[in-house]
Amino acid sequence: MINKKGLLLVLSGPSGTGKGTICKKYLEKNKNVKLSISATTRKPREGEIEGISYYYKTKQDFEEMINNNEFLEYASIYDNYYGTPKKAIFDELEKGNDVILEIEMQGAMQVKKAYPEAVCIFILPPSLLELKNRIVGRGTETPEQIEKRFNSAYDEIKKLGDYDYFIFNNVVEKSVEEIHGIVYSEKNKVIRYKNEILDMFERELEKC
Ligand code: ADP
Ligand code: 5GP
């Protein structure tokens, strides 16, 4: 039929809302979807692996990558740089593989600007109270960091209007199903594949 270029999916939303959890489950169920590995200047946490969790960089190396225009987007979050290296992503999209980015919101908006075909999904918590419980329950941040992340959550939710889709992350499996639905619909959007479809019929017509 037609060669469909891969879809760039961006999962974003406040810290602790469940992006990482949903992303992991979605990738387990969709082996041909690639996760973008970000670069960061943050130190590795216990159990994290170079090249799988992140590419860990010094500030100097990260800034060199910025100057060499190697990022699709980058942001400074909680005193560290985080960025999405662009080459690997575009290579996968060209091969027809979907790529998923799990990034915070400043970065998501930069992606949308640089690559408007990206599908930006806002992962919402069921409530602010549940969000706080999840951040605390995860146990990866200090009390100050928890407070900082929780306090910025409502301001982040106010940016919902910049996104294409929202998902209330009540039950992880249901959220994953909703992403499947979004991807299915996006892959049948006329605007995405109109040229490829018309080319296909034109080529056939030439042979008739
Ligand atoms: P994020 O990546 O958005 O910061 P995480 O995926 O790390 O968030 O999730 C934060 C915490 O909430 C984790 O402890 C995770 O197990 C838990 N969690 C995620 N989704 C759900 C859900 N639907 N119901 C209950 N707990 C959840
Ligand atoms: P953590 O330090 O907990 O791994 O990540 C902190 C925040 O940075 C999370 O909200 C995560 O989604 C975001 N993040 C991870 N990688 C990137 C990236 O490449 N770009 C941007 N803008 N944010 C990222």
Automatic annotation (TrEMBL):
Principal location class: cytoplasm
Alphabetical UniProt keywords: ATP-binding, Cytoplasm, Kinase, Nucleotide-binding, Transferase
Domain Guanylate kinase-like intervals: 6-184
GO molecular function per UniProt: GMP kinase activity
Entry superkingdom: Bacteria
Entry keyword Transferase: yes
Enzyme nomenclature, EC number: 2.7.4.8
Reaction(s) catalysed by this chain's protein: GMP + ATP = GDP + ADP
Subcellular location: Cytoplasm
Enzyme class: transferase
Family: Belongs to the guanylate kinase family.
Biological role stated in the UniProt entry: Essential for recycling GMP and indirectly, cGMP.
Protein name: Guanylate kinase
Organism from which the protein derives: Peptostreptococcus canis
Species classification: Bacteria, Bacillati, Bacillota, Clostridia, Peptostreptococcales
Gene of this entry: gmk
